[in-house]
Amino acid sequence: MMVSALLIVFFHLWVSLLTRNKVEMFLRQTAYIGVDMFFFLSAYSIGTREVTDYKAFVISRFKAVYVKFLLFALVAFFLRNWKVVALVQVLTGVNLVTKGGGAFLWFLPAIMLFYLLAPLYQKLNKKSPLFAVLSVLIVWFGVGLAVTQLTKYKAFFIFWNRIPILLVGFYAGRWIASGKLVLKTWQKALAGVLLLAVGTLIMFKFGYKPALQKPLKDMFYVLAIPSSLGFICLSDLIPEGKVVKWIGSATLEMYAIQMIFGFKFCAWVVEKLYKGSGTGFVNNLVANVLTFLFVIVISVVINQCYGYLEKTITKKLRKASV
Q1: Secondary structure of 206-252 as H, E, C letters
Q2: Using one digit for the tens of pLDDT, what is the confidence trace for 155-183?
Q3: HEC string of 57-103?
Q4: CA Rg value for the chain
Q5: What is the mean pLDDT of the chain?
Q6: Which listed residue, 28, 155, 215, 251, has the most CB atoms within 10 A of its CB?
Q7: Residues in contact with 171: Cβ distance below 8 Å, sequence separation at least 6, in sequence order
Q8: Ramachandran region, residue 217 (left: φ > 0; alpha: ψ -120 to 50; beta: rest)
Q9: CA torsion angle for 112, 117, 119, 124 (degrees, to 10)?
Q10: 229-266 b/e with 16+ CB inside 10 Å = b?
């Protein structure tokens, strides 16, 4: 989750160190796979356990994701002078459908939609695994193909074409939880390197400057799966210390902070650094370091404060009920 969030910050806020360097441009412009990693891990968490109480599960996800989304949307509402209608469209997911990746924190309503449907899919998979996966793939491809061929609409494809990575994450979670898929450290490292190498070649050809748009619109997102899996395998080798846990638990906050404040902070830093000294490798590197530190520190602080507040309120409610 930490690597996923850092990739998204890199994608949105990185100031180029080298002028028109093809490698740096490629790395930045394909860092959108951080979102794919986020979706994979969200589906993976569902696959590793059985959701027996649908209502309790949805409420827990609502508290963990949607409440924060609501709070950040309210912050943006006041800072950006949104109209009430705009706020309602953001909170109800209408913006996700109409604007896709241009919607405010689009992946949060998208992941909430997944959480609403995932337990139902889990039940269907329990009864008939083959029917479950085939029916979803047929609907995904069939509907996607019809929309691509018959309309000019493409906004929702930024989430629609993440359905395959969600399926991969779900079944990876089930296989690992059941003991069917056990990888040693060296196997994870090897799988990560191979998947990332193959995925990088595929993304360079179909998901970088020429972004594949057939047979479905934004089909290049599907082709990002090998790279996403490669990053996940290699990221799993990072020692899980306190810093990694703090940043990993604040991924949602990092997504929000970099979208609401990151651009302005980065622009402010760049302006201060460039005044009288001009652009350059050192100035750009300092701007990137300061921007990343700003997003990470603020996000971790908000996450820790929110967690403390949530625990305090829960304890008081329990005492009051007793």
Answers
A1: HECCCECCCCCCCHHHHHHHHHHHHHHHHHCCCCCCHHHHHHHHCHH
A2: 999 999 999 999 999 999 999 988 888 88
A3: HHHHHHHHHHHHHHHHHHHHHHHCCCCHHHHHHHHHCHHHHHHHHHC
A4: 21
A5: 92
A6: 251
A7: 47, 133
A8: beta
A9: -160
A10: bbbbbbbeeeeeeeeeebbbbbbbbbbbbbbbbbeebb
Longest dimension (CA), the chain: 68
Q: What HEC string does 22-63 produce?
A: HHHHHHHHCCCHHHHHHHHHHHHHHHCCCCCCHHHHHHHHHH
> Residue 270 above 90 pLDDT?
no
Average pLDDT over residues 204-220: 93
Of 26-30, 152-156, 182-186, least confident by mean pLDDT is 182-186
225 pLDDT higher than 90: yes
For residue 206, what are the β-bridge partners?
none
- Written as six digits, the tokens of 177 are 């939880």
Rounded Cα–Cα distance for residues 216 and 182 (Å): 34
Helix (H, G, I), strand (E, B) or coil at 106: coil
